[in-house]
Structures are given as structure tokens and as C-alpha cells.
Task: structure prediction
Amino acid sequence: MITVSAARRSFQSLPSRILLFLTIALMPLGLISVYQTSGVVREAVALAERDILARTLEAASTEYSAIRRAVGASYALGAMAEAVGPTSPACQQTMARYVDAQSQFIFAGYIQANGRMACASIGDAMDFAEFEDWQDLIRDPRPMVAVNPVGAISGRAVMIVSAPTFGPDGAFAGTTSISIPHDLADTLRSGGIDRVDVALANAAGEIISTSAGPSGAARFEALGLVPRDMTVPLSGAAAIVETAAGTQASVAIVPLVETNIFVIGTWAARAAPLSVSLLGFAAPVFPILMWLASLFVAYFAVDRLVLRHLAGLRGRMASFSGQDRGQGSVRIPAAPMEIQEIARSYNALVERVVDGHGALEASVAEKEVLLKEVHHRVKNNLQLISSILNMQLRTIKEGDAARILRRVQDRVMSLATIHKALYTDTQVDRVRADLLLREIIAGVMNVGGSHAIKTDIAFEPVALDPDQAVPLCLLVTEAVTNALKYAGAAVGDQISLSVALRETDTGQVTVLVRNSRGPVPGQDGAEGEDGSGLGMRLISAFVSQLGGEMDVTADAATYGLRVTFTKLPLRATDA
Result:
């Protein structure tokens, strides 16, 4: 999981910032391109809408003209029939002459309000009162267009155009019907318009006829268009609609006879003009793609010219800072002149650092040798002092002076042991306190002749600065010496001494010295000690040097001394 700090560092990196600034720089051009492309798409769609309307009108122009003439003729013949009388021979003769004069019409007749047609260009009188279409016309007198595959009088496939006639009082008087031979598909194909499907529909959306024949009616019905529920101007309207199957189709609707008959054109099964290919509705995506391509090219150029060379330089710098002196210098001959100049300056700096580091290492090694020699000489001098004290002890009989000199000798030997550890160890800036204390305690107990005492030494590995190791060793020497001097035990029990050293995770070091107490003394002559308290005063002074705290616990069976202090930070990696 990416942390917040890692994400922040990634954002602050040079590649991220370059991408950000390139994005900001190129975004205005991308927005302008998207805006201009969207404008082109809108204009293209508007042109396509006008084109689809024009194609629809062109496809239905023949039928449109025929129906418009038939509607006008129906109004005129209806007025004539009412003027001469719908049952007079003159009405029938006028109808016959008019049809003979108009080659596109094959029948004309006037139906009275009672449903009887006595005035017709051909045929006998007929009664339409029981026809469902006639009942609909009586309820809503209006111009109508219908298709009859077998005309009742002509016996041919006809398109029937009807127009109502009203009397002087405004009451419905009758309607005039004119039959036109109908084969819309052949008419459209003969006109060379084979990329559009056209249908005639009424206001309720019922398909009257289609250019694709009966099989094409289902596709138009799937559009679910109800013209009377739509606002269609006289000039027509075009749009993209969704079919019942969930697909889209380009559709144009043009009123043919007032708002009752409509021409519907569709390109659903073919290439629709409203689909603007590369400049279609997805066209704004292309400027975005171009913007991304420009961003990629710009970043690629920056990466090739700058970033990869900087990455190589950074890698060499990281290796050099990781003490890999052999990987310090860098060579990038293919980089631009400015980066090569940076590389040359860096290489010169590396050479100076390597030379200075070598001289510094030699100086440090020399100083370490000299410091070890100093510790060696100090240890030898302290051992010489100890030998002199030992010679003095041979001339003094047992008593207070002998014990005092022996205590001084123990302290001198403790210091000698510390200096010995400093010059024998590979590191002079730290001391393993646990090893040093173990050696010092063994020397104190050997000098004191305490072989009969049960000892428990529990030391954890603790590395200390020499400034703390010296007072700690002297403190433990005094504490162990006092413990041996005053240790005792109950009759039948063994005298015991325990020394512990441990370090906590917080850098606190604890030293614990505990001895048993009782009537049985720990060593000969201890009971003669006058108890001047010098040992405890020295212990308090050493605790003060360590900056620690001392805690003494005593009861009838044990005596314990606990010292706790804070460990100083070491100057090098802890061993």
C-alpha cells in the first residue's frame, strides 16, 4: 500500500512535475481543439438534418404532388356535387369527365352524409354507411389518405384521398374520394433514390404504406412515432430516435396533408446521414488523443535529453555516498552540453573528496595507534604502581594499613584493566562494560581470597563510552569489595554474592550488587574493620559522575545496591 509520504515524494519528483507543467501548457490547445471540433460536429449534424429532410421530400415528391392535387380536386368536386345535386346525372358526368382528363386519377366519387355514393366517375351507386372508415370520418371530418390493395370499384391497388364538404350551415354534407394508382416503392426506385426508406403515416402513427412494402411497416412501427404528440413544423423535422429494440435511427418527419398525413424517412438499416464518420459525436475525443500524444512526445524528449542522464548521475552519487568509492565518477557522453558540464564538475568534486577521505583515514588510523599506545603506557604505569604497593604490603604486618593499601591496589588494578581493554580492543571509542566488569570482579575476588563465596554474575552485552566506563568500573570495584567485606550468612548457609548488569530499550543501564548477611563473616579480619565509610563516599561520587541514581535496600538477610544511569550516545555504530 502506498503511504501518503511516498505519494508526496512521487509528486515532488522531476518527472511528475514535468508532466504537470506540460499538461498545463498543452491543455489550452486541447480545450480549443475540443471546442472547435464540437462546433464542426454541430454544423455537420445540422447539415445532415437538412439533408435528411431534403432526401425525404425528394423521395416522396411524386406522391406528395399527387396527393396535394387530389386533395384540391376533392374540395372542388365536392363543391360541384353539392351545387348540382349529388344524385343528378350532371354530377356523375362531371366526375367522369374530370377523371378522363387527369391521367393520374382512376376514380372520383361523392359520398353523401348518409353514406350513399350516387355520384361517381364509374360504377353503380354504393352504400358505405356500415364501413368502419366511414364511421370514423363522420365522427371527425378531415382530409384523409388511405391505401386499399384492392379498390372496391377499380379493383386495383389504390391510394384513396378524401376531403370533406360542409353545407352553408357548417354541417357535414359529404366527402369526395379520389383514387390514385399506388406503387410507392416502384415510384421511389424509378426516381433513383435508393438510400432512403419512406412511409406514409397518419396522425396516430399508423403506417399507411412504405417504400419497402408490407415487410417495411414493422421497422417504421418499431420507431414508435406518434406525429400528433410531436411538434412538427410545416418544413419538417429531423432527429435521431431510439427504437423499441434499443438501437438508434435517423428519422425525418414532414407534414403532407395539413397535420393529418405525414411522410417519414429513415436510414436505420443503411448509412445514416446523421452519422458523421470521423466528425461524429466521438470527434471531441480526437483532440484529447492528440493532446495525449503531444504530451507523450514532449515527455519522451525530456526523458531522452535530461531525465535519463540525471538518473544515471543520481545513481552514481548514491553509490558514492554509500561508501562505494569505485563508482563515484560518471560519464554521459550522449547528454546535452549543460548536463556534461555538471558531470565534469561532479567528477572533479569526487576526486577531491576521495583524496581528502584517504588522507583523513590515514590520519585517523595514526591517531588510533597513538591513542592505543597512550593507553598501553598508562596501563603499564598503573601496573608498576600496583607492584610497588604489593612490595610495600610485604613489609607491613596485617592490620588497618595492610587493608587500606590492598584497597588502593584494587582500585589501581581496576584502572589498569580499563586501559588494557582500551588498547587491546579494535575500537577506542567504546568499551564492552560486561566483559570489563567480569574481569575486574574476578581479580577482586582472587585478591580477597573469597573462594568459599557463592557468586552469581549476570551481565548483558553493554557498550559504553570510556567516559562512563571508568567511573562504572571503579563503582563496581568498590561495591563488590564492600560486599565481600560485610557479607555473611546464617549458620549452616553459604555466603552469596550476585552482580547484574542490563540495558533497557530506552538506553537506561542498571547495575545491581547484592550480598547475603548473617553472623558468619565473609572473610577473616572483616569484623575488625572500623567502617570509616570511605567506600560508600567513593560510590556516591562515581554515581554522581555517571549522572545516575543510587538505591540501597537492606534487611536481616540481604544487602543490595542498585545504580541506574542513562547511557551516553556512542560516536560510532553500536557494537
In short: Confidence is low (pLDDT under 50) at residues 188-193, 268-279, 523-530. Residues 186-278 form a domain with the Beta-Lactamase fold (CATH 3.30.450). DSSP finds 13 helices and 21 strands in the chain. The chain has five domains: 4-46+280-309, 62-182, 186-278, 329-428, 431-570.
